[in-house]
Design brief:
Blueprint (H helix, E strand, L loop, with lengths): L6 H6 L3 H9 L4 H10 L12 H10 L15 H13 L10 H7 L38 E6 L8 H19 L2 E4 L8 E6 L17 E3 L6 E5 L4 E2 L9 E2 H13 L26 H11 L2
Parallel strand pairs: 1-2, 1-3, 3-5, 6-7
Antiparallel strand pairs: 4-5
Bound molecules: 2-acetamido-2-deoxy-beta-D-glucopyranose (NAG) (4 copies) and zinc ion (2 copies).
Family: Belongs to the peptidase M10A family. Matrix metalloproteinases (MMPs) subfamily.
Organism: Durio zibethinus
Pfam family, one: Peptidase_M10
Length: 296
C-alpha cells in the first residue's frame, strides 16, 4: 500500500532533494527557536540567512511547494505560504514573519500536513465545519479494526502503553461505531503503533526533541509513529515541557481513521499541542467529522 501521510506528501517521496534537506536539518528546538527569533520581521524582497529553514517548515506542513531549491530569498511563494498559514491559524494576515507567527510556529505539533479542502467560497462564513478529510476521502471499509505495537526505539514498554492506547481508542469507538481490538504482538494488524527516532524508513524522518511529536498515515495504511525523542508522559499529571502520550494518541488515531487537521483549537484534530497539558477529550468538531466521514 502506498504510504499516505496526506495526498500532497506522496509526491514528495519522489523528490530526493527535499527529503535529503529534511534529514540534514535535524536541529534542536532551541536552535530552531533562535533562528526564528533572529528572522523576526523578515518580509518579501530581501534575503535573510537561515530563511531556508522557514521554507522547509512550510514545505513540511503543506504551505510551500516541493521540488524547489530552498534558498534564503524571501520570495512570492514564501509570502503566500505565510498568508495561508496565518489565515489557517487565525493570526493577523501580514505575509511577514512577525512575532505572533513565530510564536505559533514554535509550538510542538503533529507532523501530518495541514489540508485545505474546504469550498473556497464558503470559507469566509463560520458556518463551514472546521474538520477536514484527506484528499480523496480515504476510509476503512470495515468497522472492526485490530492494532498492535512495534517500535524501532525503546521508550515506553508495551505494558505501560497498553491501557493508554486502549483508552484513546475507546474515545473514538464511543462516537463512531468502530471497535478496536489488540492483536497479539508480532502478528498482522490493521494499525501498528510504535516509537521511532529520526530517519526511520518511511520517508518522513523525525526531528529530535520538539517541533514534530508524532505522525500517522491516512486509511487504510494504519501506521502510527511517535517521535522517540520527545519527553513523553504516561501519567495523569503531565508536567511542564512533557508531552501527554494519551492526548497525542487520540489525535493520531483521528488520522488513522481518515480525519485531517481541524482549524478549531478546541478539536483534538487541531495540529498544535501545548506541552504540559492534557487534551484527551474529543471536541464536537471531531465527533461531527468522524460521523460525516462514515455515517454521512
Ligand atoms: C540552491 O541554491 C543555492 C544558492 O543559490 C546554490 O548555491 C545551490 O547550488 C543550489 N542547489 C541546487 C541543487 O540547485
Ligand atoms: C522530562 O520531564 C521531566 C519532568 O518535567 C523532567 O524531570 C526530565 O528531566 C525531562 N527529561 C528530559 C530528557 O528532558
Ligand atoms: C488516569 O485516569 C484514567 C481515567 O481517568 C484512569 O483509568 C487511569 O488509570 C489513570 N492513569 C494513571 C496512571 O493513574
Ligand atoms: C470553527 O472553529 C471556530 C474557532 O473555535 C469557531 O468559532 C467556529 O464556530 C467553528 N465552526 C463550526 C462550524 O463549528
Ligand atoms: Zn495531526
Ligand atoms: Zn514515521
Amino acid at each position: 500500500m502506498a504510504p499516505k501521510l496526506s495526498h500532497h506528501l506522496i509526491s514528495y517521496a519522489f523528490f530526493l532533494l527535499p527529503l535529503l534537506v529534511q534529514v540534514s536539518v535535524v536541529k534542536s528546538e532551541s536552535q530552531f527557536s533562535k533562528s526564528l527569533h533572529f528572522l523576526q520581521g523578515a518580509q518579501i524582497g530581501h534575503a535573510f540567512k537561515g530563511l531556508n529553514q522557514v521554507k522547509q517548515y512550510f514545505n513540511a506542513f503543506g504551505y510551500y511547494p516541493s521540488g524547489i531549491n530552498l534558498t534564503d530569498d524571501f520570495d512570492d511563494l514564501l509570502e503566500s505560504a505565510l498568508k495561508i498559514y496565518q489565515k489557517q491559524y487565525r493570526l493577523e494576515v501580514t505575509g511577514k514573519l512577525d512575532s505572533d507567527t513565530i510564536e505559533n510556529m514554535l509550538i510542538p505539533r503533529c507532523g501530518v500536513q495541514d489540508v485545505f479542502n474546504k469550498p473556497n467560497d464558503l470559507v469566509e462564513f463560520d458556518m463551514v465545519a472546521n474538520y477536514t478529510f484527506f484528499n480523496g476521502m480515504p476510509r476503512w471499509n470495515t468497522r472492526q479494526l485490530t492494532y498492535t505495537f512495534r517500535s524501532s526505539a525503546q521508550v515506553i514498554s508495551v505494558q505501560q502503553l497498553r491501557p493508554i492506547i486502549a483508552r484513546a481508542f475507546q474515545r473514538w469507538a464511543a462516537v463512531s461505531g468502530f471497535t478496536f481490538q489488540e492483536a497479539p504482538l508480532f502478528t498482522q494488524a490493521d494499525i501498528v503503533i510504535g516509537f521511532h527516532r529520526l530517519f526511520h524508513w518511511d520517508g518522513y524522518p523525525f526531528d529530535g526533541p520538539g517541533n514534530v511529536l508524532a505522525h500517522a498515515f491516512a486509511p487504510q495504511d494504519g501506521r502510527l509513529h511517535y517521535d522517540a525523542d520527545e519527553n513523553w508522559s504516561t501519567t495523569n499529571l503531565t508536567t511542564i515541557n512533557q508531552i501527554d502520550l494519551e492526548s497525542v494518541a487520540v489525535h493520531e488515531i483521528g488520522h488513522i481513521l481518515g480525519l485531517g487537521h481541524s482549524q478549531d483549537p478546541r478539536a483534538i484534530m487541531f495540529a498544535y499541542y501545548m506541552p504540559g497539558t492534557i487534551k484527551r477529550n474529543l471536541g464536537q468538531d471531531d465527533i461531527d467529522g468522524i460521523r460525516a466521514l462514515y455515517l454521512g
